[in-house]
Design goal:
The protein is α/β, with parallel strands linked by helices. It folds into 3 domains: 166 residues, Hepatocyte Growth Factor; 200 residues, no CATH class; 227 residues, no CATH class. Helices cover 34% and strands 13% of the residues. The protein contains 24 helices and 18 strands. Strands 1, 2, 3, 4, 5 and 6 form a 6-stranded mixed beta sheet that branches. Helix 11 links the parallel strand 12 and strand 13. Helix 2 runs antiparallel to helix 3. The longest helix has 18 residues. It comes from Symbiodinium natans. InterPro entries: Apple (IPR000177), Exostosin (IPR004263), Exostosin_GT47 (IPR040911). One of its GO terms (molecular function) is glycosyltransferase activity. One of its GO terms (cellular component) is extracellular region.
């Protein structure tokens, strides 16, 4: 019908109605043709149509309240649908013939249509506009938008995330509904910002731990002699600290763990200079980044120096008894210094720690350690918090949903680059996702700018319910430890991570605090995945492999089929084929996180409060932390260390 005749016919129905429809037509028409703000049609309506009574709904400018459950929102939304509304029937015109030929927008497959109202729209009060494939996708976008309580989806793909201040109108080619249907979790109703954490008065406990002897090695054994100038708290731990929401945040470099151990032992009241009364012996040799400037210590030079400082090491009886009480610390999970792999006695029995056991391997920690003659632990990356256990942020944070449903602090680099790009794309579209991409995780020195990025990272994590931790260059990252310590539920994507922090966190404790989401579930089976997504289990025997698999299946029963498919009895191609069959299509991150109820979230937060301090590297001995746990394990491992050494077939050449 020509526009002039259409408008002439409406003129008799009143000037206000005619003006409203003219405004809507022109604004919507321009949206399909000329460049126009997506809010234009709603503005035309809002300027001319009185808004319907709110019927007890919370206004948009109010802070969302946890008492507004999705069930109540949906009920109020449906009651409003029965209220008298403006007698206007809107039709979103389109210049696309195939869209005009369709009588109703696509609702998508298996959508909760009883929760939606077809041929209704909300007018105005847009929070966000996007293009979506279906009404359900539009609802998900609303769930991902702060303060969105309802949405309108048009046949041409326009999705409007709105507030419940918007009046309802009859509208052809439109679907509207609440952000959450009855029975959905209450995760959309978030506080604007979490309050600062309370200040805690802490005091040292009465722990009497092992006495530690530190070998007085020359400076050349630490970063090629270039580490001597760094022995203050600020230099070692990345200070001066910043205060973020009441928490002292340190710009701790991820490769400085050995330096922190050295500082801690040198300043510990448990340090002894009498080698005969020591329980643990620390060898302060390390390189943050093996290179020409900061080379690893020469193994022969190191071993000869240790023999000179402690001739008893060459005594077979003393060496066998005390060798396993010695500790090597390496800064990296790859590019490890050669002396860490020494197989000659007594060095083959020294305990080892570094920040990753997996490195670039497709298997878990067992692939690194099984069959070796020594006990080697994956020590936690240095977190941004180094205080007392009782004041750990995870312990003090309020429970329940935070301002951001989820967050991602990272870039698109690394072996799992496609997974990271998918996460970044979804986070960028979601106002309920916090993000920080300027990271100091790649290189060594911490500059002023990088120090400030630690502050922003901490701010995001302290205000997030879930923190996504995809792999990068290696299977895990410093950010995972930061999330745990700051009380943000970590989301991990590879099965190799699920037991990597024993003895600091058992596999059961890790399952209690973290959410495991297989990489292929997020990107889909046909997409490019990392080597870890189809990696198998490490282990020297079939029995140990099966034991590991059954343990993970018990802890993650929803992924039992996937964990079975990754067994090493299958070839890599067979594992890949099964993964594609299990996860043929990608699942949006918001859908995955929505599976957890508020009770589930609170349970994980309570678990974090109980164990997060076990991954902290404290600046002193005042409370339980990762350093204390390490020392306790070293002195209790005498029998196990002897058994591990005897079982190993690896001998020096």
């Amino acid at each position: 019908m020509p526009l002039a005749l259409w408008l002439r016919g409406l003129a008799s129905k009143g000037p206000i109605l005619c003006g409203v429809l003219v405004g809507l037509y022109l604004a919507t028409h321009s949206r399909h043709g000329a460049a126009t703000s997506p809010e234009a049609p709603w503005k035309a309506l809002a300027d001319n149509i009185p808004e319907a009574p709110p019927r007890g709904r919370v206004q948009a400018e109010e802070a969302p309240s946890i008492s507004r459950t999705p069930q109540r929102e949906a009920r109020a939304f449906r009651e409003d649908a029965r209220e008298p509304q403006a007698s206007v029937i809107l039709k979103s015109p389109s210049e696309t013939p195939e869209l005009e030929a369709t009588s109703a927008p696509s609702l998508g497959e298996q959508e909760p249509q009883e929760c939606f109202d077809t041929n209704w729209a909300l007018a105005g009060f847009d929070l966000q506009h996007s293009k979506e494939s279906s009404a359900l996708a539009c609802q998900k976008q609303c769930q991902c938008t702060e303060h969105c309580t309802a949405f309108t989806y048009w046949q041409n793909g326009d999705c409007h995330a709105q507030t419940d201040k918007a009046p309802r109108m009859r509208a052809l080619e439109a679907v509207t509904g609440p952000a959450f249907c009855p029975g959905a979790p209450a995760g959309a109703l978030l506080p604007e910002r979490a309050p600062d954490l309370p200040k805690m008065q802490t005091a040292p406990d009465r722990y009497e731990g092992p006495k530690v002897y530190v070998y007085e090695l020359p400076e050349r054994f630490r970063n090629g002699g270039k580490d001597s100038a760094c022995f203050t708290v600020d230099c070692v731990f990345g200070g001066p600290p910043m205060v973020v929401q009441g928490v002292e945040i340190w710009a701790s470099n991820q490769f400085h763990m050995p330096r922190m151990l050295y500082y801690r032992f040198m300043n510990s009241p448990r340090r002894t200079k009498d080698i005969n009364e020591a329980d643990v012996f620390f060898v302060p040799a390390y390189s943050f980044k093996p290179s020409e400037e900061t080379p690893c210590a020469d193994g022969g030079d190191l071993f000869n120096t240790l023999f000179q400082l402690n001739p008893s090491l060459q005594d077979p009886a003393w060496g066998t008894e005390k060798a396993s009480r010695h500790l090597f610390a390496d800064a990296r999970g790859w590019e490890t210094c050669n002396y860490m792999w020494q197989l000659a006695m007594p060095f083959r029995m020294f305990h080892r720690v570094n920040i990753e056991l997996n490195g670039l391997e497709e298997t878990g920690p067992e692939g690194w350690t099984d069959g070796k003659p020594f006990i080697w632990y994956q020590f936690p990356y240095p977190a941004v918090y180094h205080g007392h256990a009782d004041a750990t942020p995870a312990k003090l944070r309020s429970r329940g949903f935070a301002r951001y449903l989820w967050s991602f602090t990272g870039t698109g680099r690394g072996i799992a680059g496609h997974l990271r790009s998918v996460i970044t794309e979804q986070c960028n579209r979601c106002t309920r996702c916090g993000r920080e991409t300027n990271l100091p995780e790649v290189n060594g020195a911490v500059t002023t700018e990088e120090g400030d990025s630690y502050r922003r990272i901490a701010e995001v994590k302290l205000q997030s319910t879930f923190c996504l931790e995809p792999p990068g260059d290696t299977v895990t990252r410093k950010s995972l430890v930061d999330s745990i310590v700051l009380g943000c539920i970590p989301v991990v994507f590879e099965h190799q991570e699920l037991d990597m922090y024993e003895p600091f966190l058992s596999a059961e404790q890790f399952a209690a605090v973290a959410l495991f989401v297989p990489e292929a579930e997020v990107v889909g089976g046909d997409a490019k995945v990392s080597i870890w997504a189809i990696g198998t289990y490490g282990g020297k025997t079939t029995r140990s492999i099966n034991k590991k698999m059954r343990q993970l299946q018990k802890l993650y029963p929803e992924y039992s089929e996937l964990l079975e498919a990754l067994h090493p009895r299958f070839t890599q191609q067979e594992r890949w084929d099964q993964v594609k069959r299990i996860f043929p299509k990608p699942t949006p991150i918001v859908d995955i996180l929505s599976r957890l109820s508020e009770e589930d979230v609170r349970n994980k937060q309570e678990a974090l409060a109980l164990v997060a301090h076990r991954l902290v590297i404290g600046m002193d001995d005042s409370s339980e932390d990762a350093v204390r746990i390490l020392l306790d394990n070293i002195v209790s491992n005498d029998a196990e260390a002897v058994a591990v050494e005897r079982k190993s077939d690896l001998r020096p050449p």
